Amino acid sequence: MIKIFNDLKNKLEEFKPIKEGVVTMYVCGVTVYDSPHLGHARSAVAFDLIRKYFEYKGYRVKYVMNYTDVDDNMINRANERGISIYKLAQESIALYEEMQRALFIKSPTVKPRATDEIPDMIKFIKKLDEKGFTYESQGSVYFDTSKMENYKGLFQKKEISEQDSEDDQFTQSDFAKDKKNIEDFVLWKKEKPGEPSWKSPWGKGRPGWHIECSVMAMKYLGKTIDIHGGGKDLKRPHHQNEIAQSESVTGKTFVNYWMHNGFLNIDDTKMSKSLGNFISLMDMLKNHSGVFLRYYLINSYYQRPINFSMDKMDQTLLSLKKIQRFYKNLNEYSVAKGKSGSVKGISEHKNQIEELKKQFLDAMDTDFNSPKAMGYLFSLINYFNKNIFIKKNQISNKIKEDLIEFLDGIDSFLGFINPQVKEDQEESGSIWKDRFEKLTNTILDFRKEVKSAKKFELADQIRDLLINNKIKISDQGIDYSWEIE
Ligand SMILES: [Zn+2]
Question: How far apart are CA 242 and CA 238, in angstroms?
Answer without folding.
Answer: 6
